[in-house]
Amino acid sequence: MALSLTNAVRLGGSYEFSSQAKRSCSFMPLTNVFSDETKKSALKTPIQSNGWKLNCNSSGSAFNHAGNQGEATQSTRWWEVAGTDNFREILSEEDLKDSLKNAGNKLVVVHFYSPACGGCRPLHPKMYQIAEAHQEVIFLKVNQQVHKSLCKTIIAPVVPFFQFYRGAQGRLCSFSCTLATIKKLRDALTKHGTAQCSLGPAKGLDEDVLLKLASNKEIELSYPVGFSGNHGDFALHAA
Prior knowledge:
five-stranded mixed sheet; globular; Thioredoxin_domain; four-stranded antiparallel sheet
């Protein structure tokens, strides 16, 4: 919302007014009405409230002014913008393990990012576009600031970072790329995106990663050490 007292009073943005009693309100342009002393006085005079509720929606932010309280709602953070159905946020280490295990023979792309990463922000909108164009692929994003232990265990040394998984093959490749080198991601999707027949249950995370996460009590693991079958069918015990 912009306020100018040079030659007129201007109010910018979209406005919605509500009160207990229905009223109408209009703003008339005022040109060359105020003297310099009047302008200075107007700037020092607090705005009075008569029960009106003013919602101002300006580009880039949202403000909610109610009564005498000036409250501003925080704009949506860029990494929390809703994406497509096949691109979602990983909530926990257990969530990642189960997501890979339950993906069947679909290609899964795990995207590691950080809100503090300068290269992640411009890449994020492009990721949504790519996910929308590849509905046959499952895209999972992992917030490095939230899941530091997981990123360290899974060996995601930098962000942005990508890992590709498919069915019984498990992890296919790992690499880092930014918006400037997005071709690496597109090439990997072309190489590994073709449909393949399953040779067994989905492998998911590597066994050493699963054991480390289980030892830190970050996931529940139920298969014997050294067993390479379908994870989750047996009780974990020491060798």
